Amino acid sequence: MKNVGGFPHFQEGGVAVKKLAVLLVTLVLVSSMFGALGFKIGVVTGTVSQGEDEYRGAEAVVKKFGKEIIHVTYPDMFMQEQETTIGRIVELAYDPQVKAIVVCQGVPGTTAAIRRVKEMRKDIVFVVGVPHEDPEVIASAADVVLEVDTPGRGKTIAELAKKMGVQTIIHYSFPRHMSMQLIAERKDIMEKTAKQLGINFVLVSAPDPLGEQGLTGAQQFILEDVPRQLAKYGPKTGFFSTNCGMQEPLQKAILKNGGYYLEPCCPSPTHGFPGSLGISIPDDKKGDMVYILRTIDKKIVEMGGAGRFATWPVPMNMLFVEAGVDIAVALVQKKTSATNLNAIKLIVTESAKKKYPKASLQVRTFSPLKNYYLFIHDSIIFGVDKF
């Protein structure tokens, strides 16, 4: 036996062996062309300014799968630019190698885009995380929908406020969000539970970041309003905002003026906290939630915020992008079905545990929609809990 071109070559039966060598070379070339999957997946997220967690999730899957992931973003002003969002999703389907598209957040226009793509190519699988459109609407178009158990959080956030010693909850939102079915339901449940627990509940209308004042105006409102509410209701006031762009100024205002922070709108250790606390996460630690939680905890305690800030230990929007890609792969490869609750839960939980080993997610479907999955996780309080 001698080595020819990197492959073992037997002189006996040389023709057959040479054919085998050619076949092996061909397989290597095909593998290098198509990568680990053999197909491409489109990933659509907001920009860093509108939703950093999902953007970072997209970066992680690009790093994992390379050129097999095509990452595009929808516009910051997505309400006014729905056709742009639709166009960017539809454009992905023109690539015949794209077999799945993951969208997070599922902003308005996502359903229309999916239906337009399905008219062209019924073979493309869609996984949508954090939909803005009504459940029945998005579930009728997407193969799988992933969402935080928004209604369930109405109860858990009020219970968290009671645990933290909060006497008044300030709920910041605006008409666009209050028109969303699950967000409105969460507010109603939160208000009802708060009253049952003896907590005052106050609904405060804030500027819509997609309105005339823009994100800057909305953030300035939060910075100015928190001290007003604390002066009115006292230091045992807890705050919750339904908008991603408001989280960082809300955290800063509470650190400066007092009060309690009752979790981000999109539960995550990285939603607002690094920016509000001036923390820089090293590249090699960006997926390590234990490291990030401990770093945030140390900073909050140093700044006098112990017992006053809470979150989930798992970055859900980031998780929905990364687990969404894994679900898309399983669906394309027909390893599971879109309505297999146990399989979907397993995929999402395994992805969560890579970030936070003690992750323990509960999941249910939004009845009667068997492809619409709602996830919930227990909260942690900085300066109190260990992780």
Please provide a written account of the structure.
The chain has a 7-stranded mixed beta sheet with strand order 4-3-5-6-7-14-13, with helices on both faces. A 6-stranded mixed beta sheet has the order 9-8-10-11-12-15, with helices on both faces. Strands 1-2 form a two-stranded antiparallel ribbon. Residues 1-34 have low confidence and may be disordered. The protein is globular, with a radius of gyration of 24 Å. The chain is α/β, with parallel strands linked by helices. α6 (150-164) packs parallel to α8, α9 (214-233) runs parallel beside α10 (247-257) and α13 packs across α14. It has 3 domains: 2-34; 40-142 and 317-355, Rossmann fold, CATH 3.40.50; 150-314, 3-Layer(aba) Sandwich (Rossmann fold). Helices cover 47% and strands 20% of the residues. The termini are far apart. The chain has 14 helices and 15 strands.
